[in-house]
Design goal:
single chain; alpha/beta; 17 strands; about 20% strand; globular
Amino acid sequence: MKKNNIKFTVENSLCTGCGICEDVCPTRSIQITKIKGENIPILNETTCLGSKCARCLKVCPGIGIDIRTKAKEHFKTTQEDRYIGHYTALYTGYSNDYEIRYHSASGGVTSQFLIYLLEKKIINGAVVTAFSETDHVTPISYIARTKEDILKARSSKYCPVSLNKIGNEIKNSAGKYVIVGLPCHIQGFRKRAEIDKKFRENVIGYFSIYCSSNRTYYAQDFLLKKYDIQKKDISYFSYRDNGCLGNLSVKSITKEISVPFINYYGSLRSFFKPRRCLTCIDHYGALADVCFGDIHLPPYSEDKVGISSWVVRTPFFNELFKQAVAEKYITMHILDAKTLNESQKTMLYPKQRRAQAIINMDRLIGKETVKYDFELEKPQLKDYISEILCQIQRYIGKHPSLWWVIDYLYNKSVNNKKK
């Protein structure tokens, strides 16, 4: 198959749903559309310039990126870890504003640091994602220019997020901006920066959220069905609110629910994983200037309010964090690489092996696969078994008539723990 446009990505199940292709198309031939629980670029082949342009493929993270080569180019003077990548410093800590800390996913450092950068006029805005004020469940990305804009976007979004309306707005706006996204978003924007000078000059930093895998919109539908909530009745929705790890919090006309994260998220397993997430090996965000996430390890995980961990890859942002501490925006403690990796081990360590297992199976049936600039870890038999089971779960997740299986397995697991 020829690599003329984004159709190559979609037809080979390589699309991450990042949406960056839409913004760079000079003929506006791409539109991100919600299809079967995912965000997919739909191409108008009549107006597409094909191989004469191919800008959509040039920015596409789905087909792969030279992660290690690019990381060396951007982060030349840093330390390096096998899993974390290049870095200047590693930290744990939290926002010194209790409300921000308590109502964010883990410690509130991402929100608090963005507020610091805005208030000190280091940036003019930051790309963030909040839920729509219309239906309260659809993710909407925008440039936050005030503290209030940032706080609307706090906490996790376990659903597809496309940044398809952001790149050109940044390019055409005066000032300096930070982009907050998942590792795949950061990869795509780094690719765009290589072919778009004005965009590159306006972005002062890329911030990534740790990501083991995203979930499709069907996961949200499943949770609402499970807890008997009508989407049209919702006035507030958050995957994680009220403390460390937090609760699924939903308010509707008829009821309110608050379910601990550890009680509901595990039941989702691999049922709602997007296909391309299975071959992603970038947990932390190797091309981001700063990466933020949870720290699932005692004593940090015993905290009831919120603790963040983060990776700083550049001296520039490291100094800004130190200034934010000095001005009492955040509390910060040094962290070591081994502890950080151990806190992510169930998601981090098998990632390359399982990705390679899927790649090997795809090659057997003649499918195009993602390309990286280094060899992934060799899969073990258990990795192939795990990925086959994952595919079975994904099939169930795509068919609402089979969702009773998910409830059955969850209830069985709970009952076994009680014995």
